[in-house]
């Protein structure tokens, strides 16, 4: 039997959320298996990929992580939202305003035809910061439920914290 063309086994997943929530660190953790030693603010689009095996089939996962800069967005946004297979919304559990921004990000996705028919998940990052005031899990879970998304709380920095970054992205890949 012949395999489907490689192109059909590439999944594009976009990682969305306010600047500083850890999108770049999360994609780096998943694709490189570690926390980056230093990150620079994403200019334009950060793009990483990793080949994973699912049910004996090799799948290439492309993670796109955008910067929020208005200047960049106008020219790139159409390209960014094209042919997307899944969406990962990220907020920082220690930053309430990044949680409050989520409806706007969800709305922007809907405007680009990325609604409930596309697998979407919600990720609360930086759970390693235990002493900080946190966005409550109950509140986040309610919000996730109201948008029909699963919620994961994680840390790009400490892989043993809560949900594993690897497992989160693999959950998405399995859905695809
Ligand atoms: P982005 O703008 O969403 O891409 O955010 P970055 O990935 O560049 O991360 C922003 C800042 O948050 C950096 O200083 C990271 O080191 C830090 N950061 C990212 N993820 C975590 C995490 O899980 N825990 C902690 N403590 N810091 C994190
Ligand atoms: Mg970034």
TrEMBL record:
UniProt record, GO biological process: autophagosome assembly; central nervous system projection neuron axonogenesis; commissural neuron axon guidance; Rab protein signal transduction; regulation of exocytosis
Keywords: GTP-binding, Hydrolase, Lipoprotein, Membrane, Methylation, Nucleotide-binding, Prenylation
CC annotations in GO: endosome; Golgi apparatus
Protein name as it appears in the record: small monomeric GTPase
Record field: catalytic activity: GTP + H2O = GDP + phosphate + H(+)
Cofactor(s) recorded in Swiss-Prot or TrEMBL: Mg(2+)
Primary location recorded for the protein, binned into one broad class: membrane
EC number: 3.6.5.2
Enzyme class: hydrolase
Family assignment from sequence similarity: Belongs to the small GTPase superfamily. Rab family.
Molecular function GO labels: G protein activity; GTP binding; GTPase activity
Span covered, complete protein: 24 to 199 of 231
Subcellular location: Endomembrane system
Entry membrane topology: Lipid-anchor
């Amino acid at each position: 039997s012949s395999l489907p063309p490689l192109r059909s086994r590439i999944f594009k997943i976009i990682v969305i959320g306010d600047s500083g929530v850890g999108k770049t660190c999360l994609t780096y953790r998943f694709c490189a298996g570690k926390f980056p030693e230093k990150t620079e603010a994403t200019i334009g689009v950060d793009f990483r990929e990793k080949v994973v095996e699912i049910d004996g089939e090799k799948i290439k996962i492309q993670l796109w992580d955008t910067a929020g800069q208005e200047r960049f967005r106008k020219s790139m946004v159409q390209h960014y939202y094209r042919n997307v297979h899944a969406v990962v919304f990220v907020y920082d559990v220690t930053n309430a305003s990044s949680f409050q921004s989520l409806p706007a990000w969800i709305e922007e996705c809907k405007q680009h035809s990325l609604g409930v028919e596309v697998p979407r998940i919600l990720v609360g990052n930086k759970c390693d910061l235990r002493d900080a005031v946190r966005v409550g899990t109950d509140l986040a879970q309610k919000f996730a439920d109201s948008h029909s998304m699963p919620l994961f709380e994680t840390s790009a920095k400490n892989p043993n914290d809560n949900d594993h970054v690897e497992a989160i992205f693999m959950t998405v890949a399995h859905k695809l």
